[in-house]
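Page 47, continued from p. 46.
Same chain as before, 80 aa.
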Amino acid sequence: MTSKLTLSIDSKVIESAKRLSKARGQSISKLVEEYLKKIGRLEKNPMRSSILELKGIGGKASKNFNYKRKIAEYLAKKYK
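Result:
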């Protein structure tokens, strides 16, 4: 089932989304839907989110980001 959603987005972002949409051959609605699904998966798996930050995909990692500590915290929580 699909539902309509109204968003207020900066016009420059909209133009960028239109170009991306055209390049991928997908509607902007589909791009937004896929992005929101991806965010939902990242929240369910915070370790994946941290790894994507390191790769520059999920956002830029902070300068004091400690990758080894994050792995240790994740594994400790997972196998607790």
